[in-house]
UniProtKB/TrEMBL annotation:
Domain Poly A polymerase head: 29-148
Cofactor(s) required for function per UniProt: Mg(2+)
Stored Pfam families: PolyA_pol, PolyA_pol_RNAbd, tRNA_NucTran2_2
Keywords, in A-Z order: Magnesium, Metal-binding, Nucleotide-binding, Nucleotidyltransferase, RNA-binding, Transferase, tRNA processing
GO biological process terms, semicolon-separated: tRNA processing
Organism: Candidatus Kutchimonas denitrificans
Transcription regulation among keywords: no
tRNA nucleotidyltransferase/poly(A) polymerase RNA and SrmB- binding domain ranges (all copies): 175-235
Annotated protein name in UniProt: CCA tRNA nucleotidyltransferase
Limits of the CCA-adding enzyme C-terminal domain: 269-411
One GO MF term: metal ion binding
InterPro entries (alphabetical): Bact_CCA-adding_enz_type3_sf (IPR050264), CCA-adding_enz_C (IPR032810), NT_sf (IPR043519), PolA_pol_head_dom (IPR002646), PolyA_RNA-bd (IPR032828)
Length: 416
């Protein structure tokens, strides 16, 4: 497609980097997601450049610069705004295996764009001349809200099976319809995604959950067969429960992502930890998501039962109370609860928050005594410490006025 004039909002640092390369005779264009999003009317800071200059030349021209991915031709250049922009030499693939590509430098921008996954990502913009170069008609696909592969769809997915996940993410985030040939090739390529590493799958899932259109993308995961391939535990949910989860996820904020992760994986119960570990989530992330899931499974206390409210907080812990309440509200939204059910949920949440604000004792750290006090009673550290302190906590949850050192020491003596 011939180039068309159209000024996009490009950071001044990107313009400066482009100008320096162009002045030395190296064709340079902005490419990738920032161009796509700018054409859709949204702004991003992570602009990428493709250039005819080699990485060695880029590093000589810019200081400081960073070897972000030299074997792929990518150099990080720090702009005057303090941000690092990726500058990559024009490339073409010479060998792929579904997970990795062997690339070599190319001579032209068109060769570089031809190796990209979808037409909406194969649009280039010249920051100096304000020209759009769109050889695969990606701009038209954006306007038609269509996701279409560059070239032969089957070949594109066979080159890198991660493109299956990327395609579904783009379709969900931007509300795109997947073009028929692209959809056929995508679903055919789904079995190949089992070859992807847990890290790459995890990164894509997080990107889905952090972006607009997460429920739509997850529904495409299921329709395409990807859910059954990568998350068979979730694919076993019946249609009603799956739909409820998606509606609830839509009701949750995108940040922090742990809320959406917990809601998605909570139905797995104790097996959630195994699934999350398989996806290479960190130990801290696994802990957060599984503990939140456990908190969500704790039935909320009756709004008129303060003691039950304290017992709920003991089980959930104050750390997770607000998140658990938010998840309960989202599930009610997903279930399209009746008005009286919503009012009851609001009353339950209000009672829990009242207990928190009042500072009622609900954890061992809230007790007026600790292990050192038990040592003073002549007790030896061991299992009895935990049993006695738990019993003291039971007592003060029933009657917070007992949370005084003399009263608890007396209770402890009675249990020795």
């Amino acid at each position: 497609m011939e180039e068309r004039k159209s000024a996009l909002d490009v950071p001044a640092a990107v313009v400066e980097i482009t100008r320096r390369l162009e002045e030395r005779g190296y064709a340079t264009w902005a490419v990738g997601g920032a161009v796509r999003d700018a054409l859709l009317g949204s702004s991003r800071t992570d602009w990428d450049l493709a250039t005819a200059a080699t990485p060695e030349t880029v590093r000589k021209l810019f200081r400081p610069s960073y070897p972000i991915g030299l074997r792929f031709g990518t150099v990080g250049v720090r702009g005057r705004d303090g941000l690092v922009y990726e500058v990559t030499t024009f490339r073409r693939d010479i060998e792929t295996d579904g997970r990795h590509a062997v690339v070599e430098y190319a001579d032209t921008l068109d060769e570089d764009l031809a190796r990209r996954d979808f037409t909406i990502n194969a649009i280039a913009y010249h920051p100096l001349r304000h020209e759009i170069h769109d050889p695969f008609d990606g701009r038209s696909d954006l306007q038609r809200r269509l996701l279409r592969c560059v070239g032969d769809p089957a070949r594109r997915f066979a080159e890198d099976y991660l493109r299956v996940l990327r395609g579904l993410r783009f379709a969900g985030r931007y509300g795109l319809e997947v073009e028929t040939a692209t959809w056929t090739a995508l679903t055919t390529a789904v079995p190949g995604t089992s070859r992807l590493s847990g890290e790459r799958v995890r990164e894509e899932l997080i990107k889905v959950l952090e972006a607009p259109g997460a429920p739509a993308a997850l529904e495409l995961y299921r329709r395409s067969g990807l859910l059954a391939e990568l998350f068979p535990e979730l694919d076993r949910l019946d249609n009603e429960e799956w739909g409820r989860r998606l509606r609830a996820i839509a009701d949750l904020p995108r940040d922090p992502v742990r809320l959406r992760l917990a809601l998605l994986f909570e139905p797995l119960g104790e097996t959630a930890e195994e699934t999350l570990s398989r996806l290479r989530f960190s130990n801290a992330e696994v802990r957060d998501v599984t503990e939140l899931g456990a908190a969500l499974r704790e039935p909320l206390p009756p709004p008129d039962d303060v003691k039950a409210g304290r017992r709920w907080l003991r089980a959930v812990t104050p750390e997770w109370a607000e998140d658990a309440l938010r998840l309960q509200a989202a599930l009610a939204e997903g279930w399209d609860a009746e008005e009286d059910e919503r009012r009851r949920l609001e009353a339950q949440a209000a009672r829990v928050r009242e207990i928190l604000e009042r500072g009622d004792p609900v954890t061992l750290s809230d007790l007026a005594i600790d292990g050192n006090d038990l040592k003073e009673l002549g007790l030896e550290p061991g299992p009895d410490f935990g049993r006695i302190l738990d019993a003291c906590l039971d007592a003060v949850i029933e009657d917070p006025s007992l949370n005084r050192r003399p009263a608890l020491l007396e209770l402890a003596r009675e249990m020795t």
